[in-house]
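Page 37, continued from 36.
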């Protein structure tokens, strides 16, 4: 993403506007502060959310189909129970709704209250529990509490710092026997990246194992049709018996 200079209230290009907000926030020492500003501006009709496609991530849906993902049988081990899932940085809710449709008891959170309010409006009557929360300071009750943790394009939206802290907090959400799926732009070490988004190296992906997770599969996907062709799609698990949660 190209970050433009200038004092306009908003840019015609949503990506340029988001980049400007991010640059201002990082410069002010508040690297997560731009998310709420962006969603609030979108709510006011001043811009659009650049990553809002109105559908779940195709990288997530393809992975779920390949894996046969189903919350009522794959993880919890009983048709009478549902596995618990959390969708990190859920934005306007498409990924969260997809995961809930796969049978998971789903929590979805975002640091932006405006995003959470918009997701609730977009999906009235949803089974998803939408909450405002911060990955860098999650509720204590979420420690190793989820059978499935979904992270799509959130780590890449954070500079470093605080990305290393976010990687550690992300891994700590995964329960015994649970799994984590991570989707992010990929780059080689030393390859320049002007964010947001800030593409991740393989070493940053592998750092998710530092919280006791084990890699199941780390895919380096390449699609020349995309603006940024390379993507990581990485699955991790926490060894141990799967948890069984009542709905």
């Amino acid at each position: 993403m190209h970050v433009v200079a200038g004092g306009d209230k908003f840019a015609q290009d949503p990506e340029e506007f988001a980049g400007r907000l991010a640059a201002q926030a990082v410069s002010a020492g508040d690297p997560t502060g731009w998310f709420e500003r962006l969603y609030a501006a979108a709510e006011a009709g001043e811009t659009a959310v650049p990553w809002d496609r109105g559908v779940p991530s195709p990288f997530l849906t393809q992975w779920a189909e390949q894996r046969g993902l189903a919350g009522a049988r794959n993880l919890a081990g009983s048709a009478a129970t549902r596995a618990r899932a959390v969708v990190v940085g859920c934005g306007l809710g498409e990924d969260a709704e997809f995961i809930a449709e796969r049978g998971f008891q789903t929590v979805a959170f975002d640091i932006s209250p405006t995003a959470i309010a918009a997701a609730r409006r977009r999906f009235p009557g949803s089974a998803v529990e939408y909450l405002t929360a911060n990955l860098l300071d999650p509720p204590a009750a979420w420690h190793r509490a989820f059978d499935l943790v979904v992270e799509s394009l959130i780590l890449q939206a954070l500079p470093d710092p605080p990305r290393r802290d976010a990687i550690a907090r992300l891994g700590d959400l995964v329960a015994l026997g649970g799994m984590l799926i991570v989707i992010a732009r990929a780059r080689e070490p030393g390859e320049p990246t002007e964010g947001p988004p800030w593409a991740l190296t393989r070493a940053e992906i592998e750092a998710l194992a530092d919280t006791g997770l084990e890699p199941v599969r780390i895919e380096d996907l390449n699609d020349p049709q995309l603006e940024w062709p390379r993507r990581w799609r990485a699955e991790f698990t926490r060894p141990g018996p799967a948890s069984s949660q009542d709905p």
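The helical segments are 14-27, 34-43, 58-67, 71-75, 94-101, 113-122, 163-171, 202-206. Flag for discussion at group meeting. The first helix runs from residue 14 to 27.
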